[in-house]
Specification:
With 353 residues, the protein is α/β, with parallel strands linked by helices. It has helices at residues 16-20, 49-58, 71-81, 94-105, 121-128, 171-180, 203-206, 234-241, 251-262, 264-287, 310-318, 340-352, and strands spanning 36-37, 88-91, 111-116, 132-137, 155-159, 185-189, 210-215, 228-231, 299-303, 321-322, 332-336. Helix 2 (49-58) packs antiparallel against helix 9 (251-262), helix 3 runs parallel beside helix 9 (251-262) and helix 4 (94-105) packs parallel to helix 5 (121-128). The structure holds pyridoxal-5'-phosphate.
Length: 353
């Protein structure tokens, strides 16, 4: 073939969807450990010593590939939720499982529907498949939008508790949605469910059209390890396994995950501390004039209706406190629940602003 007269642009080699994509923008990850980091909903407490030991021990066998099916992790998860291990799938974070689901379900032009505002990565993943998003705005009570019961889509997603609002819908409402929409796959993203009063995790094994996604990144303090979990029926898990990379979860991640799941007491203690700090943070923010929807997660959405919070976010950042600001929610800051000392520092800075 003849050589083109000029070099092609990088985009010219790729699918047009990629060139058109802005790309997901994660929150900043500063290297300075002095920064008060309340921007990406990590757990402020470190994982337990048992997790560190297990990861160190696993180094001995790093010359071998990891178990492609992450059997030991799946067995722990199955025991914890009373589900069949054959219906559990483990991913390199729940983000990988979301990506895998989109690749498995969404062909060009297919629609994916969800309430908004929500986790903005969903938009990016749909765009990568050349799919269509159907955004259904949440009402003021953040209940499941009624349109989800009838919308024409290949995939429905309910983030519960929802990010960035922190609000949760009751399990009963999710059961109703799953029953009403047996024609379509329903993803329940429970990344933050351990911080909530209830969860719907076991629903994944009982409804043929449901997959529940969990992560060890938040409640188990393992965002850096990258372990996500899907709970569904053995039949659907077998299909999804065809799409999964064989060695998607490293040996170190599997060892750490097993140790973390075996140490429920440590996770529950951290969750209890975060929930107590969350209640205090909400009280302080309300005193400062913010409106805060009831949070069931490890973060809160603090709103000043009609008043942009961009300059507040920037001023906090210049003082070494990172919170999340979204251009499409200009009157809000999303604030991760840190340690008590970190929240004290945030409140001092907010007051001085
Ligand atoms: C709603 C939601 N789902 C999934 C994830 C991804 O978590 P993971 O670290 O397991 O990829 C996040 C991360 O912030 C999230 O907010």
């Amino acid at each position: 073939m003849a050589k083109p007269a000029t070099d092609l642009s990088p985009q010219a080699y790729l699918r047009p969807e990629i060139a058109a994509l802005a790309g997901y923008v994660p929150g900043e990850q500063p290297t300075d450990p002095g920064v008060v980091k309340l921007n990406t909903n990590e757990n402020p407490y470190p994982p337990s010593a048992a997790v560190r030991r297990a990861i160190t021990d696993a180094c001995e066998r790093l010359h071998l590939y990891p178990d492609p099916s992450a059997r030991e992790v799946r067995e722990r998860v199955a025991r914890l939720y009373g589900v069949d291990p054959a219906g559990v799938i483990v991913g390199n974070g729940s983000d990988e499982l979301l990506s895998l689901l989109m690749r498995a379900v969404i062909a060009p032009g297919d629609a994916v529907a969800y309430g908004t505002p929500t986790y903005s990565l969903y938009d990016t993943l749909v765009a990568l498949q050349a799919g269509r998003t159907i955004h259904i705005p949440y009402g003021p009570d953040y209940g499941i939008p009624r349109e989800l019961l009838s919308v024409n889509a290949r995939l429905l997603i309910v983030c519960n508790p929802n990010a960035p609002s922190g609000t949760a819908v009751p399990r009963r409402a999710l059961e109703e949605l799953a029953e009403a929409r047996r024609d379509v796959l329903v993803v329940i993203d429970e990344a933050y469910a351990d911080f909530a009063d209830e969860n719907a995790t076991a629903m994944g094994s009982r409804h043929p059209n449901v997959i529940v996604l969990r992560t060890l990144s938040k409640s188990y303090s393992l965002a850096g390890l990258r372990v996500g979990i899907g709970i569904t029926t053995p039949g659907l898990a077998a299909e999804l396994n065809k799409v999964k990379d064989s060695y998607n979860v490293s040996r170190l991640a599997q060892a750490g995950a097993v140790a973390a799941l075996d140490d429920q007491a440590s996770m529950l203690a951290h969750v209890a501390r975060v929930r107590a700090t969350r209640a205090r943070l909400v009280r302080e923010l309300e005193r400062l004039g913010y409106v805060v929807p009831p949070s069931q997660a490890n973060f809160v959405l603090a709103r000043r209706p009609g008043r942009s919070q961009q300059s507040v976010k920037e001023a906090l950042q210049s003082r070494g406190v990172l919170v999340r600001y979204f251009g499409d929610l200009p009157d809000a800051l999303r604030i991760t629940v840190g340690t008590d000392a970190e929240i004290d520092r945030l409140i001092v800075e907010l007051k001085s602003l």
